[in-house]
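Q: I'm a student working through a structural biology exercise. My instructor gave each of us a protein and asked us to get a predicted structure, then write a short paragraph describing it. Mine is Sulfotransferase domain-containing protein. I'm not confident about reading structure output yet, so if you can add a plain explanation after the tokens, that would really help. Here is the sequence I was given:
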Amino acid sequence: GETDNAWIYMGRYARARLSSRSHLVAARRATHDDASWVSEDVSTIANRSDVLCQARQMMLVLHNPIPRARVFGFKEIYSSMVRKPKAHGEIFTHGVDFIRLMFPRAKFIFHWRENISRIAHSDFWNFEDAQSAAQEKFTRIIERFRRYAAENPEHAYATTLEGVTDQKNQTQLEGLFNFLGETLTPQLRKMAHNRGVLKDWSEEHHTRRIKKVLENGTVMVDTVQYAWRPDEVQANRKKRLAMTNTTPDVSALQ
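A: Happy to help. First, here is the predicted structure for Sulfotransferase domain-containing protein. I'll explain a few features afterward.
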């Protein structure tokens, strides 16, 4: 699911904590003639790893809960970063670099649409900018992504929606799986070429089987459903319509 730039903010927070501790150690070192600041220095180094370990543990809990998957991932849409070109660097310093610090083998896929004008024409952007301004912002960030992937091929790869779904030219799709070190099976190849309808996140629902070991040693498996259930989606739609004081058409609730 989308993390709404959460890991960029987490990286920014962690860097700020480490920076403040470094300043504290420097101040103690400058004001103490004896070696009393040494213990603080050692503690700071230990706490530095604590900050990273805590963030790493949280990421695992959120994105790869038990039973753990061999490989896990997540998606971020850098909408706020696209709006502010001056903040593009934070995608790499507080986002990519921070995650690589916690997971050295992490790989990053920068993904966009070749049809930039189609993206910029979205109502999501028209509320804020003219289409030409939005298109210029997308062009700038895409060039930044493209350049980063070219300079860091060991952990970054660039794809487009059109490229990975192109049946005639499968170079990008095959390159993606080579980059990930995964096998591109016929089933996955077929899936990439099947342009199905993408549901809104609130319409998706998933189940996960979680194994639990009781105190007496008995093993039980619970089936847990998360995200929104279809009945919850319909109830939320009715609630939103009621709040706007509109009378819904029956078909709108189906």
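A: Here are two points you could use in your paragraph. The radius of gyration is 23 Å. Residues 30 and 37 are 9 Å apart (CA to CA). It's a good idea to check both against the output above yourself.
Q: Great, thank you!
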